[in-house]
Amino acid sequence: MTSTVLFADFSETPDRNIFDKLSQMLDRLPLSAAVAAGDLAAVKVHFGERGNTAFVAPHFVRAVADKLRELGAKPFVTDANTLYAGSRANSVDHLETAHRHGFTYSSLGCPVLIADGLRGGASVEVAVKGTHFKKVKLAHDLARADAIVCVTHFKGHELSGFGGSIKNLGMGGGSRGGKLAMHSDVAPLVKAEKCTACGRCAASCPAGAITVAGHAVIDQKKCIGCGACISVCPVRAVRNVWDSGPRAMQEKMTEHLAGFAALKPGKIAYVNFINHVSPACDCYGHAGTPIAPDVGICASLDPVAVDAASCDLVNKAAGQDAFRAVHPDADWSVQLDAAERLGLGSREYELVKVA
Question: Which of 157, 161, 162 lies closest to 283 in space, CA to CA?
Answer without folding.
Answer: 157
